Q: What sequence folds into this?
């Protein structure tokens, strides 16, 4: 692709995403007129008065706004983490959960619900346990020598993940069936229904902190898909870069999962979509994945809150919508994607 | 087991700390004469002076509000089953299903709740910091006051009176609170005369297999303690719901088995192990009616009052000789606002 065509494609993608954001803002179960929406957003930007019903303003700024922002952030984070992991593990079946971050976050959140803590404490526990689980996996794998380091890492992730899964199962079993069990079940299905402005402001810096090293190291991350020896011959220290990628991806995924609950599908499949579109080069794959992930989760969450009178769990909807889309793309794409 | 026991102890502690008797303070002379109500979690909730529309956040709250202020309830949390519908007057049964708002990642869409324009949201059940902070959040986001009430059996009358006060239905609430109080104290009075040796040992079988049961202190098995009977599972300690084996139940050898699950009721007489249990062999397996709401459990709200009378008669036939039919008719009329037909009463009271 020439550079002009690339910038055109980027501009088109950003315009499409902006269009999607406008649609997401304007639809919902509570009717908000387009004019009201525009004046509220305008007033928000300029600080001017708008004189619109405060309920309508609350819908736009406190309910829909944070939800749209959270969907964009979380979709982008999960897709970026997935793309980096698939590159690093040289395996298209890898998702950001592979090293146990979601399982760890699930244990943290379920423990918080089980102990009847407040929402902030539940989210913090989820975030901390997500980081802790990956730390544990990384250290376990580091203690084992003489094997393929990636294989050991994945194996440790799977084993620790299943242990954490057992912890979740135990707490579900012991939980109070009226108040705690439904809360646990909903958390494990993932939802943005209760996303608040504070959620968005607290996760945004963490997401950026994770995304920045991925973008800065994009050329070297590309080289991670080579054999360790080949990479070393090119002067790349795979071990250190791997650690940076793991830390960045874990930070983003953990922060995402802490406010949304477990959303599995995006990190696994969105990078494939991106590869079908732009090929495997990480410097193109990362921004494409970020845009696609953000757009996809925003679209799905908008459906989740508008299609039925009650909320539809995100984990369910992502798979129902994403799978046929992906299969269609797979069948019709001509570009090699591995 | 120990974990469960600890949890239950903690819950009790939280309950006793968090549920101070709800106080209503009137700030009169104010332009809108708004009130501030202290709820069971100790939260100060500002309420409008006149309340016309109430959104109940979960099934227990729906039943409570429906009993006291049916015309102010704006919807149910889920759609009715065909078997339940005929027990509720059509104009109430036809209210929309808005979803529930309790717990994280609720099924209700906040915008749907907003669109329904409730004057306040109320939840009735266990009060915990999780639910309290969620209520704060929803209140912050929507600007709709969110009230938490304690669902403990002993605090039922407090909850009834508070809803009556805030909904402007004091008379109805007072009558219902008296009824609840009288039902419970009458049962306590009569059960107290039953000697310890005559209090039956009960197994409460939940789930289609009947192998889930509530430990001592669990809200699901609360009715057993309320009736002064012995919960065989109490031997395992205090806590919530657990799964046990049929062999364990055989060893406990309960005198009576109670369930709310028709599948278990049908299975028990055919299953090679269950059928061997002396209580089941002797026909002392009892299926609690469950329409429109469960009689002994599920959801744990004021619907359990009638279950107490029902089970009291089964456990202590000498102390409770009265015919249940008029009592059930009265309860349904009082709480669900429609007198059941004779055929409906027959179906509810068929020997089980």
A:
């Amino acid at each position: 692709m020439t550079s002009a065509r690339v910038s055109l494609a980027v501009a088109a993608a950003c315009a499409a995403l902006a269009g999607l954001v406008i649609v997401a803002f304007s639809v919902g179960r509570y009717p908000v007129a387009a004019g009201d929406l525009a004046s509220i957003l305008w007033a928000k930007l300029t600080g001017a008065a708008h004189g619109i019903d405060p309920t309508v303003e609350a819908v736009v700024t406190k309910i829909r706004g944070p939800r749209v922002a959270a969907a964009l952030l979380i979709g982008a984070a999960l897709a970026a983490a997935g793309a980096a992991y698939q590159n690093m593990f040289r395996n298209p079946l890898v998702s950001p959960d592979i090293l146990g971050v979601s399982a760890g976050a699930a244990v943290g959140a379920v423990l918080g619900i089980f102990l009847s803590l407040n929402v902030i404490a539940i989210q913090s526990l989820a975030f901390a346990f997500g980081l802790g689980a990956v730390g544990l996996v990384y250290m376990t794998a580091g203690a084992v020598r003489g094997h393929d380091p990636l294989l050991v890492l994945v194996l440790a992730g799977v084993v620790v993940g299943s242990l954490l899964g057992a912890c979740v199962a135990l707490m579900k079993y012991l939980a109070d069936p009226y108040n705690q069990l439904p809360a646990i079940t909903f958390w494990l299905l993932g939802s943005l229904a209760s996303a608040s402005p504070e959620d968005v402001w607290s996760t945004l810096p963490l997401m950026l902190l994770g995304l920045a090293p991925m973008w800065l190291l994009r050329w070297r991350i590309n080289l991670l898909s080579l054999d360790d020896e080949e990479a070393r011959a090119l002067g790349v220290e795979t071990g250190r870069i791997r650690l940076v990628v793991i830390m960045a991806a874990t930070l983003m995924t953990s922060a995402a999962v802490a406010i949304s609950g477990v959303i599995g599908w995006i990190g696994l499949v969105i990078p494939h979509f991106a590869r079908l579109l732009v090929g495997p080069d990480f410097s193109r794959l990362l921004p494409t994945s970020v845009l696609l992930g953000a757009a996809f989760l925003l679209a799905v969450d908008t459906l989740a809150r508008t299609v039925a009178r009650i909320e539809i769990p995100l984990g369910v909807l992502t798979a129902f919508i994403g799978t046929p889309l992906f299969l269609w793309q797979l069948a019709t794409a001509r570009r090699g994607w591995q | 087991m120990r974990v469960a026991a600890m949890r239950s102890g903690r819950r009790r502690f939280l309950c006793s700390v968090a549920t101070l008797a709800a106080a209503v303070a009137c700030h009169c002379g104010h332009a809108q004469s708004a009130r501030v109500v202290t709820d069971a979690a100790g939260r100060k909730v500002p309420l409008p002076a006149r309340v016309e529309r109430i959104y109940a956040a979960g099934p227990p709250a729906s039943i409570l509000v429906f009993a006291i202020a049916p015309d102010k309830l704006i919807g149910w949390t889920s759609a009715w089953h065909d078997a339940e519908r005929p027990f509720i007057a059509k104009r109430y049964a036809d209210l929309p299903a808005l979803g529930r708002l309790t717990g994280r990642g609720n099924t209700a869409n906040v915008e749907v709740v907003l669109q329904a324009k409730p004057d306040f949201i109320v939840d009735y059940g266990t009060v915990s910091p999780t639910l309290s902070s969620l209520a704060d959040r929803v209140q912050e986001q929507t600007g709709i006051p969110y009230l938490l009430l304690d669902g403990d059996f002993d605090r039922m009358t407090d909850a009834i009176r508070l809803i009556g006060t805030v909904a402007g239905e004091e008379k109805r609430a007072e009558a219902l609170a008296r009824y609840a109080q009288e039902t419970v104290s009458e049962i306590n009075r009569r059960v107290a005369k039953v000697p310890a040796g005559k209090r039956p040992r009960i197994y409460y079988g939940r789930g289609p297999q009947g192998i889930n049961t509530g430990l001592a202190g669990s809200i699901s098995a609360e009715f057993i303690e309320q009736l002064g009977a012995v919960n065989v599972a109490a031997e395992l300690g205090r806590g919530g719901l657990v799964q046990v084996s049929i062999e364990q139940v055989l060893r406990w050898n309960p005198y009576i088995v109670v369930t709310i699950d028709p599948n278990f009721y049908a299975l028990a007489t055919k299953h090679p192990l269950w059928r061997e249990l002396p209580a089941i062999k002797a026909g002392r397996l009892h299926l609690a009616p469950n329409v429109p709401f469960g009689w002994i459990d599920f959801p744990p709200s004021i619907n359990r009052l009638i279950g107490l009378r029902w089970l009291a008669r089964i456990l202590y036939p000498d102390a409770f000789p009265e015919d249940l039919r008029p009592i059930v008719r009265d309860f349904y009329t009082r709480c669900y606002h429609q007198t059941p037909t004779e055929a409906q009463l027959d179906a509810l009271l068929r020997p089980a």
